[in-house]
Amino acid sequence: MMKFIDPHIHCVSRTTDDYEALRQAGVVAVIEPAFWLGQPRTEVGSFKDYFSTLIGWERFRASQFGIRHYCTIGLNSKEANNEALAEQVMEILPLYIYKEGVVGVGEIGYDDQTALEDKYFRLQLELAKEANLPVQIHTPHRNKKVGTSRSMDVCIEHGIAPQMVIIDHNNEETVKETLDRGFWAAFSIYPSTKMGNERMVEIVKKYGSERIFINSAADWGISDPLAVPKTAQLMAERGISEKDIHLVCYQNAYDAFAQSGQMHESDFIVEIDQSQRFNGNSVLRGGRDPKIEKLDSKIIK
Amino acid sequence: MMPTFQTDIIEARNFLYQLLVRQVDEKAKNWIEQKIHLLANSFSTQNFYIAFTSAPRFVGKQNLHLSPMEESEANAIRKGFTLKNWTIDRTTRILFVLYLPTENAENHVSILSKVFQTAEVNELVALYAALPLLPFPEKYIYQCTEGIRTNMAPVFEAVALNNPFPAEFLDENAWNQLFLKAIFTGKKIYQIQGIKQRANATLAQICSDFAHERWAAGRKVTPELWMPVVHFINDTILKDLEKLKESNDILQRQALVLVCLESSHAQVKELLTGMEDLKEKALKGEFSWESISEQWHEANQ
C-alpha cells in the first residue's frame, strides 16, 4: 500500500472519522499550519491557546490514530491587519517556533496585500531565518498571480533560499514562475476555490514531479481530507508513474519540511494494525468497528 | 506548614547529571555542560526557556537506563522518586528545571507556569515528572490537579503513575479523582504510589458505585478497583466482594483474596472459606496486585 503525507490540513476542524479515514487511506503524517479560525480572534490569549493546541492536544489526538502530527506556527495574513493584536502575537511566536515537531513558520504571506500584511510577513521571514526553519506561504485568493510573485520577491529580498520556501495554493497560472525560481510548488486540492484533482493530473503531466507536491488544505469549510490519497489514485489511473506519485504525494513534502530537522521518517508508524495501540489508547475504543470512508468517489471538482 | 524543599536540589542535580553523562555522547555532554554552566552562572528566563525547549535536538530521545543501584539511589534522594520509562531528553529537561532560582517562590512559579502554559506534549510529561523534585511543592498542587484533568494519555501518566507527589500533596477530593480517572482510562493501578495510605471511605464508596454502574451496563470491572476498599468495608462493599467470589475470572478471585488477607473485618475474613488454595498462593507471593494488574491489562487490551 502507498503511504502519503498531507502537508497542509487543519486537523483541529476535523473529526475522528477523518483521522480514521486518513490512516486507512495510508496517510502516515500530517502538517497543520497555524491559520485563522473562520472569524477573527480578539485577544492574544486565543492565539496562545491555539498554538498550544497544535503542539499538544491535536498532536496527541492524531497519534491515537497512528498519524504523526507536525505543525507550522505563524501569524496569518488576515489577522496581521489588526496591528495592536499582531504586535502581541509576534511577541509570543518565539515561544513556539523552537518547539519539537514545529517544522516551519506558516502559513504566512498575503491576503489583501495591505501594508500591515507586508510588515508582519517580513518580520516572520526574519524569524524563520533566525530559526533556520522552512517557510510555508499562503498565496492570496484575489489578485493571486501578483501576490504570488511578490511573496517570492520578498523572500529573496530577505535572503531566504528558495529551497527553504513552500509556495502554497498554486494553480495553472502561478506554477511555472514558482518552479522556475527554484521554490517548492504546493497545490491544495480543495473543491471549488482552489485546485481540482483532474487539473492536478494535467499539471503533473506537464511539469513533472520535481519540487511539486499536493495537500488537502482541509479545514472548517467544505473540503476533503482524503484529497491526497484520492488524487494519487486518480494519477495512477491516468498513467502517471508510481515514482512520480510518490514524489508528489509523499517525498517532496517530506524533503521540504524535513529541512527543519524536526521531521523524521523513523518516527512514522508505517505498519497498520487495527488492534495496535497508539500512545496507550486503542484506536478502536469500546469495541467499535472502524469507520472507513470508501475511495469510490475520488473526483474533487 | 509544608516543606520548602522536597529534596536536596544540589544532590538531585548531581544524580541526574551523572546518569546523563554516562549515557550520552561527547557532543551531547558538552552541550549539557555548557547549558548548566550558563544557568548556574547567568540565569535568565530566556536562557532557561531555550535550553528546556531545545534539549531533544542536542541530546536525543533514547531511553534512560538505570541499574538497580541507581534506582535505590533515586529513592534515597527523594522517597518514591523513580525514573521508570524516562528518556534522555526528559532527564535533561528536568536537570535544567533544577537550576531555577529558589530564593523566591513567586519567581519560581511564575517562570515555570509560563513553561507549563506553552508546553508541547513531551515538555508537559517532563514538567509533571519533575513535580516531586520541585521546591515550594504547595505552590504546584493546583498544577498537579490540572495535569490530572488532561486528556493527553502520556501527560496524565506522568502525573498519576510512578510519581510520589500526588499522594503526598493532593487533598482527598483531588486524590479520589486521580484514582478513579486512572481506573476509567485503563491505567496499571499498582503504578500509582500511596494507594493504601490515601485510601478513604469516600473513595471506597465511589469504587463500589463505579462497579455497579459497569455491571449494570454489562461491562467488565478491573479487579484493581478493589485495592482501596480494604479498611472501608460496609454492607454494600461486602456484597460486592461476595460477588467477586463467584466470578469465573481468576484475577477477580485473586483480588478478593488479597483484600481478605489485608482486611481485619470478620465477615470479609470469612469469605476466604473455600479459597484456601488461592490464599496459600497469595501468602507464597505467587500473585500480587502487580501481577493481577499486568495480567488484566494483557488480557483486556
List the SSEs and their pairings.
The complex is a heterodimer of chains A (301) and B (301).
Chain A: E1 4-6, H1 16-24, E2 27-33, H2 44-55, H3 57-63, E3 68-73, H4 83-97, E4 102-109, H5 115-131, E5 135-138, H6 144-157, E6 165-167, H7 175-180, E7 184-188, H8 197-207, E8 212-215, H9 227-237, H10 242-257, E9 277-278, E10 281-282
Parallel strand pairs in A: 1-2, 2-3, 3-4, 4-5, 5-6, 6-7, 7-8
Antiparallel strand pairs in A: 9-10
Chain B: H1 9-23, H2 26-41, H3 45-59, H4 68-77, H5 88-97, H6 105-117, H7 121-129, H8 141-149, H9 153-160, H10 165-169, H11 172-184, H12 195-198, H13 201-216, H14 235-245, H15 250-262, H16 266-270, H17 276-283, H18 289-299
GO molecular function (chain A): hydrolase activity, acting on ester bonds; metal ion binding
Pfam families (chain A): TatD_DNase
Family (chain A): Belongs to the metallo-dependent hydrolases superfamily.
Account of the protein in words:
The complex is a heterodimer of chains A (301) and B (301). Helix content of chain A is 39%, strand content 15%. With 301 residues, chain A is an alpha/beta fold. In chain A, the strands form 2 sheets. Chain A has an 8-stranded parallel β-sheet. In chain A, helix 4 links the parallel strand 3 and strand 4. In chain A, helix 2 (44-55) runs parallel beside helix 3, helix 2 (44-55) runs parallel beside helix 4 and helix 4 (83-97) packs parallel to helix 5 (115-131). Chain A is globular, with a radius of gyration of 18 Å. By secondary structure, chain B is mostly helical. Chain B has 2 domains: 9-170, no CATH class; 197-299, no CATH class. The mean pLDDT of chain B is 95. In chain B, helix 1 (9-23) runs antiparallel to helix 4, helix 3 packs antiparallel against helix 5 (88-97) and helix 15 runs antiparallel to helix 18 (289-299). The longest helix of chain B has 16 residues, at 26-41. Classes of the chains: A alpha/beta (301), B mainly alpha (301). Chain B: Residues 234-281 form a coiled coil. Chain B: Keywords: Coiled coil. Chain B: InterPro entries: EboA_dom (IPR047715).
